[in-house]
Every structure is written in structure tokens, then in C-alpha cells.
Design a protein that fits this description.
There is one protein chain. By secondary structure, the chain is mainly β. It has one helix and eight strands, in the order αββββββββ. It has one domain: Porin (Beta Barrel), CATH 2.40.160. An eight-stranded antiparallel barrel has the order 1-2-3-4-5-6-7-8. β3 and β4 form a beta hairpin. The relative contact order is 0.21.
Length: 127
Amino acid sequence: MKKLLLYIFLVLIFCEKSYADQVLFCSMNTHVKYSDKETWENLEKRKWTVTIKSKSLKIFNHKIELDSEYIIISQNELYLNAFADYSNKSDGAWVEFFSLNKKTNEAKLASTTSYGETYHIGKCRKN
């Protein structure tokens, strides 16, 4: 019995996978370019909560109180990249890309719609 507990303990120590969701809190500068204008506008900083799961992530925008679901398209020890496709929306189609540098915690969120483009850049932190 002691050997079994020792083996279980050793396996758990060297197990690298975590099955719990990782939650990040992000603060990002927001830049927008409307389709009928030539220049970019700077908006106020926005706050986001990013919940990372094994194959997807959820981003909650605190400004407009909206959850968005993303599919993780690539991930390694340095980067995480995710994509969301909202082409079936009744108010117009849009796509979004999220990128996180895991080493520096820098995050970028870009979206494009028929109304224009929005680009957010900032830092994330764990709880």
C-alpha cells in the first residue's frame, strides 16, 4: 500500500497537464477605425476576463458585458492563439483573433466587421 501511494505521488508530481480552467484578467488599450473614416481613434482602456480551457477560451468584455467563445487554433509553452467566427450574426458578420504571449503576458485582440476594425493591446495577469 505504501508503494502504491508513493507511485501515485510521483506520477502526480511529474504530471504537467492541468485540467482546471486558467483565468486571466486583462487591461487593454482600445483602438478603432470605422469603415467610413481614414484614421484610427483611441478609446478608453477596456477590461477583460479570459477563461482558458483545454481547446477553447471564453472572453468576457466588462465594458459591454458580453461573453465571446473562441477556438484555440495553436498553443505551446510561449503562445496561445484563438479565433472566433461570427459570420451568422443577424447584425453583420465579424471575426476575432486573440493572441497571448505566455512569457510576457502581453495580449492582443483584433476584430473586423463591416463597420470597421478594432484592435486591443495590453497585459493580462492571473488572479
